[in-house]
Amino acid sequence: MFEDRILFLDGEALVIDKPSGLAVHPGKRGGPSLEDHLYQLCFGFARPPSPVHRLDRDTSGCLLLARNPKAHRRFQRAFEERKVGKVYLAVLEGRGLASDGVIDLPLEKISSREAGWRMAPAESGSPAVTHWKALAERDGLTLVRFEPETGRTHQLRAHAAYELNAPIAGDPVYGKGEGPLLLHALSLRLEREGKRPIEALAPLPPSFHEAGFTDADL
After folding, report:
1. Residue 98 in contact with residue 134, Cβ under 8 Å?
2. How confident is the model at residue 115, as a pLDDT?
3. Number of Cβ atoms within 10 Å of the Cβ of 18
């Protein structure tokens, strides 16, 4: 399943191109997840790798896994200290956005019996900062490049909907939910002392091409 999805591999790190539709960890109701496939990613090691961060089930792209506990702790600390460079691509429902900007909108989790849970703007929420740039427009949709400073749950999805007033296409929580979620973790970079950086670039998924966007738009 993952033979063609390895983006980076060395003695302590592995980056895969996670497919859309596969959760990183099983939910409360169970179901398939990346954890079911970790032993396929040992590559000669007895211990399977462990995910350092997470992507939403329907988000595709770069996912970092650590190949030993020491590396996992070090990589996790880098995420906490905002030392990991991450770039996402998203197709937004709307056009005529400004060319670029910075979204500084704190978020907090809210829930109700009827609507379930979601992230919502709140002055008392956790800090959430996202840099963004509009790249191209097609048929009422806009391709946007996101570079998050923070890593809050649903941060990009909430920021697109609440601040840009243009939810990510296919988002069932913050948008119409028609079609696949068009959110892709394009690249990841992590500097390491005494070693080459961890660098990975995930190819644009077919769903983006079907929406009319190609590598020429990046």
Report:
1. yes
2. 72
3. 26
What is the DSSP code string of 56-71? -TT-EEEEEEESSHHH
Number of domains the chain is built from: 2
Range of the domain at 32: 1-81
The 3-state DSSP composition of the chain as helix, strand, coil percent (nearest 5) reads 15, 40, 45
Q: Is residue 121 part of a domain?
A: yes
Active site amino acids: 56
Residues of the chain with pLDDT under 70: none
DSSP 116-127: EEEEEE-TTSB-
User: Residue 153: which CATH number?
Assistant: 3.30.2350.10
114 and 58 in a common domain: no
Q: Is residue 185 part of a domain?
A: no
Q: What residues pair up with 33 in beta bridges, in sequence order?
A: 23
| Measured distance CA(89)–CA(217) in Å, rounded | 11
Same domain, 19 and 54: yes
Neighbours of 159 (CB within 10 A): 26
